[in-house]
Design goal:
Helix content is 24%, strand content 23%. The protein has 171 residues and is an alpha/beta fold. It has a domain of 104 residues: Glutaredoxin (3-Layer(aba) Sandwich). Strand 4, helix 3 and strand 5 form a beta-alpha-beta unit. The protein is globular. It starts with 6 loop residues before the first helix and ends in an 8-residue tail after the last helix. It binds zinc ion. The site of zinc ion has 8 residues, from loops.
Length: 171
């Protein structure tokens, strides 16, 4: 290494707010920034298999929409609420139609739904696992099991109706 001369200066500096360095997502999972629909506060949230994320300022349930990769998906999909996996790609027109609908639904169903977006071009293992031969493919998971599957774009009212049975809290 050629940073001998900088070592003294570097050791003085702060190591970050928590002192922890988390380059590729630890066991606790990657941080997502979730914006509160009620007060606008940006919350830093890691995946959790229990409960739902709550705004640090106003305590409202947060719209839970995250991006996952082949590496982080299993952590993100392990949730207490229904998980809607959006298998999409940047070049796909119908996917761009669906994207704002999913953002709306994550707000309207805050506390009952988690949306996990997966770019199929960058995450071929997930595309294969969910057989996303045509996109958008939307897969609904409950406790890790596929409970519904929607191929192609769907208008928001129909999608909301389709999702509603899966949004009930687990008994
Ligand atoms: Zn808030």
């Amino acid at each position: 290494m050629s940073d001998e001369g900088r070592r003294a200066a570097a050791t003085d500096g702060p190591v970050g707010p928590t002192g922890a360095h988390d380059p590729a997502g630890s066991a606790a999972g990657p941080v997502s920034i979730l914006t509160c629909a009620s007060c606008g506060t940006k919350n830093r949230i890691r995946p959790s298999a229990r409960g739902v994320p709550i705004c640090a300022s106003c305590k409202a349930p947060l719209p839970w929409l995250v991006h996952a990769t082949d590496a982080t998906f299993d952590l993100e999909a392990d949730a207490s609420v229904a998980v809607l996996v959006d298998l999409w790609a940047p070049w796909c027109g119908p996917c761009r139609f669906v994207a704002p609908i999913l953002e709306d639904l994550s707000r309207e169903f805050a506390g009952r739904l988690k949306v996990v977006k997966v770019d199929v071009d960058e995450n071929p293992a997930l595309a294969q696992r969910f057989e996303a031969f045509s996109i958008p493919t939307l897969v609904v998971l409950r406790n890790g099991r596929v409970v519904d599957r929607i191929v192609g774009a769907m208008p928001k009212p129909q999608l909301a109706v389709r999702l509603t049975p899966h949004l009930l809290r687990a008994p």
